[in-house]
Design a protein that fits this description.
By secondary structure, the chain is an alpha+beta fold. 53% of the residues lie in helices and 9% in strands. The strands form four sheets. It has a five-stranded mixed β-sheet, with helices on both faces. It has a three-stranded antiparallel β-sheet with strand order 4-12-9. A hairpin with a 2-residue loop joins strand 6 and strand 7. Helix 1 crosses helix 2, helix 8 packs parallel to helix 21 and helix 12 crosses helix 14. The longest helix is centred in the middle third of the chain and has 31 residues. It is globular, with a radius of gyration of 25 Å. The structure holds protoporphyrin IX containing FE (HEM). The site of protoporphyrin IX containing FE has 23 residues, from helix 14 and helix 21.
């Protein structure tokens, strides 16, 4: 033992003795003192101490848990960056970046920035899906098996089931509006939500969940998924707590808890899997589940049955609120801007009258013949991306340099698309405004074309790198079909123009209040 060591012995001993005496005198005071010391240590001794941010955030993760609980992180993170600058310390060991260039670096594949334990909190436990898997090598293996089922070609092959769901949505809306007059107020947001869920039911399990058919949130499934998401978002800020909460053996026995396995979506998915396992006949069509089962058969050890279920089931969770939120943002913004709405409707009708749109709009027709629609959609995904919380990665190895400064190994990095998409250098000085025209360039206008290419490079609505949204092909396909279809078929009016939707983000931005009156054109 060194000389220093021999002096430390009595010092440690007397410090412990002091704490023991204090503890015996007042346990509460001792715990408060220890927490205060821990707070001050994190705030002032950490290498991140030079970064600005809220006082509480620098010493405790309860601050970001509180912000997530409030459900306004999409606004709070913008406000934090406007107050403190491009890099903000939002947790003792976490920095948020506002620069789109920094975000590209953090998300780019092969640089070793892996997902943090935030994702570990999201179910299912024991067998994470593509989204929740935090072990990068395992994620890469699983992804090899799911790439083909998730390809654009696979989803295109499922177009008839998307069309069938669009038809069902239109039938429902037709039934609500009386011909020639505007309907009574309808929560269109709910119907877009039901649509997104039913498409996923068809695509993943060849079964509509019945939300549209029944015109309601069957068995409170959507509500309960949103509640699970609130838990994930908040506890994800302090992941170890999950061990004492949802992962604890007593959790499912608590009177106010409905086990996730009892959710209507999960029950339906399990029933479909059981049906496939118990019958020798394959379903008449190839859905996500059957393609994943084919992947499993190729290498049952590397991609087992539990993974098949986790991935197919995970698609519903990852793809429903996200797609619904994007469609709601689009509708709210175009309906709130009469000149944009007019221009969009004119474009759709011109294309329709020129015979360029099928009876149910095809996604490539929409891409080719509706450039203003594409601009409106892109702008909706820019101004109101569906993920309202940050996405998180960890600094690898010996540390890294971002934005010209060194960040130590193990630091968590956060990027929020709501912040990134308001960068005025990339998106223009009016980046806070919904203006689809920023995405348009006249033919041969090279200057504007390269400006648009640059904006495209810095869009993060689907994340980026090796974890870029794997379901984006499906989302883009269905949105490109259903929205022009609705706009061509109905005339919409907001019940309360200018009234913002209520937005709550614990991961996805869940929105309420897209109330419209509408009639058949
Ligand atoms: C407009 C709709 C959608 C948006 C805006 C969206 C957004 C995102 C974002 C931002 C990520 C990255 C999250 C992160 O890195 O932390 C992500 C990942 C993911 N999304 Fe989507 N998503 C959408 C639709 C879908 C759909 C329809 C599906 C499934 C069919 C899906 C499945 C997934 C999966 C599995 C991941 C994890 C990918 C990985 O980590 O490798 N998403 N999504």
């Amino acid at each position: 033992m060194s000389k220093g060591g021999s002096r430390e012995g009595p010092l440690v001993h007397s410090t412990l003795a002091t704490f023991w005496a204090l503890f015996r005198y007042s346990p509460t005071l001792t715990i408060v003192t220890l927490l205060a010391i821990r707070f001050l240590f994190r705030r002032y001794v950490s290498p991140l101490r030079r970064y600005p941010g809220p006082f509480l955030a620098s010493g405790t993760r309860l601050h970001s848990a509180f912000l997530t609980w409030r459900g306004k992180t999409h606004e709070d993170h913008i406000a934090l960056h406007r107050k403190y600058g491009p890099v903000v310390r939002i947790q003792p060991n976490q920095l948020s970046f506002a620069s789109p260039e920094a975000a590209r670096q953090i998300l780019s594949p092969g640089k070793g920035f892996h997902k943090t334990l935030f994702y570990w909190v999201f179910p299912p436990y024991g067998n994470p899906d593509i989204f929740t898997e935090v072990r990068e090598e395992v994620h890469a293996t699983k992804k090899r098996f799911v790439n083909q089922p998730y390809s654009l070609a696979s989803f295109q092959a499922m177009t008839p089931w998307v069309d069938q769901t669009i038809q069902l949505l239109c039938d429902k809306l037709d039934g609500i509006c009386i011909s020639g007059t505007l309907s009574t107020p309808l929560n269109l947001g709910d119907y877009l939500h039901y649509f997104a869920f039913d498409v996923l039911g068809q695509v993943a399990f060849s079964t509509a969940f019945g939300f549209l058919e029944q015109g309601k949130d069957v068995d409170g499934a959507i509500k309960s998924i949103d509640a699970v998401q609130v838990y994930d978002g908040i506890v994800g800020q302090i992941p170890f707590l999950d061990r004492f909460l949802r992962r604890a053996f007593y959790w499912d026995y608590l009177p106010w808890v409905t086990p996730l396995s009892n959710n209507y979506i999960t029950r339906t998915a399990l029933a479909q899997l059981a049906k496939r396992e118990n019958s020798n006949t394959k379903p008449g069509r190839r859905d996500l589940l059957s393609m994943l089962l084919e992947s499993h058969e190729k290498d049952p050890n590397k991609f087992d049955k539990n993974s098949v279920f986790a991935v197919a089931h995970g698609a519903i969770f990852a793809g429903s609120d996200s797609t619904a939120s994007t469609m709601q943002t689009f509708m709210w913004n175009i309906l709130n801007n009469p000149s944009i709405y007019e221009r969009l409707i004119t474009e759709i009708f011109d294309a329709h009258q020129a015979g360029k749109l099928s009876e149910i709009v095809a996604w490539d027709e929409s891409q080719k013949h509706l450039p203003y629609f594409q601009a409106c959609l892109k702008e909706a995904m820019r101004i109101g991306p569906a993920v309202g919380l940050a996405i998180y990665r960890k600094v690898p190895g010996t540390g890294t340099e971002i934005n010209g400064t060194f960040i130590p190994c193990g630091t968590e990095l956060a990027v929020n698309a709501w912040v990134l998409h308001r960068d005025q250098d990339i998106f223009g000085r009016d980046a806070d405004v919904y203006r689809p025209e920023r995405w348009l360039a006249a033919e041969g206008d090279e200057k504007n074309e390269s400006r648009i290419k640059r904006m495209d490079r810095y869009m993060f609505q689907f994340g980026g790198g090796s974890h870029v949204c794997i379901g984006r092909n499906l989302a883009i396909l269905e949105i490109n079909k259903v929205l022009p279809q609705l706009l061509r078929r109905y005339k919409f009016e907001l019940v309360a123009p200018g009234r913002p939707m209520h937005q709550h983000s614990s991961f996805f931005v869940v929105q309420e209040g897209l109330e419209v009156r509408f009639q058949r054109r």
